[in-house]
Amino acid sequence: MKKIWSILGVCLLLLSLAACGKGETNEQGYYNRLNVYNWGDYIDPQVLEDFEKEYGIKINYENYANNEEMLAKIQAGGTDYDVIFPSEYMVEAMIKQGLLQKLDMNHLPNFKYIGDQFKNLPYDPGNQYSVPYFWGTMGIIYNTKKVQEPVDSWEALWDERYKGDILMLDSARDTIGIALKKLGYSLNTRNIEELEKAKEELIRQKPLVKAYEVDAYKDMMIAGEAAMALTWSGDAMLLTEENPDLAYVIPKEGTNLWFDAIAIPITSKHKREAELFINYMMRPEVAAKCAAYVKYATPNEAAKELLPKEVIENELSYPKGNIMEKGEVFVDLGEFTTEYDRVWTELKAK
User: Fold this and answer.
1) Mean pLDDT throughout 88-96?
2) Are residues 221 and 343 in the same domain?
3) Could you say which residues bind spermidine here (predicted)?
4) Residue 112 has pLDDT above 50, yes or no
5) Is 89 annotated as a binding residue?
6) Taking the CB of the first residue and of the last residue of the chain, which one, N or C, has fewer CB atoms within 10 A?
């Protein structure tokens, strides 16, 4: 009798577990939740709603301010993030650290819409771990009513005439990178002396800086509360639409050519659904909707055909020719990253 009750108990337990498991999936057989971790204001909210309706998968959506914040969360492993949007150097770093899962291209047929010049880039050869999402340049956005003289150099961000009227990005690699470019160095330098000179330049500039921001600076520029700001090209396109007094320029010393990607972190327990979401994001109509909302350049060639002609012909968003000749791409600096972190900490402490 005890044996029978024991068998019955096991059966009831298995049925209970099966019921619990079934409760985690929807009618289409997909796990019913997906944790997406992205930059702030970096996707059309309607796209998320449409995905939820089509697949019956609820998206838990969180924002991060920079790559380093995202990396720390993934390393900590406290949240089961399924999809992330790292920049190129962070993709490279996370691959080396074993923090990304390999993609199954059989589940990503929409990858065919990505332009060839955006495939197989050095930070992820063969696109084994990521697919491109947006790309662009870095430059200066300035208010033509406040700045009368031509702006063609990074030196403008050090002009004492605009003390307290300059906005910089609260991002170590980006801000240190343009200081290096200003000095004629690589923004990927591993030379301590060059890095120290960049730090000295940023310390010299700091009394002129109104604030270090990532998102709030956009509203400040639209409202005419600052003369100029370090910015990404996509933000510049959005800001110039909102305020016709604003103009964007890529300085003559060179720029950062950047790429943001979509990837699946090691924390994901639902790779099938994560790949479903990534493939959905590469649909031409979805990619075009996100590009129109965020104002950044899409690498999706079919999506570009759905965007207004004046957008595609704007060379500040879509430079002509070989894009790799337009600037320098960030690479993972490995252990030397700690030196950039040190410089950033010392700058902020001044």
Assistant:
1) 96
2) yes
3) 89
4) yes
5) yes
6) N
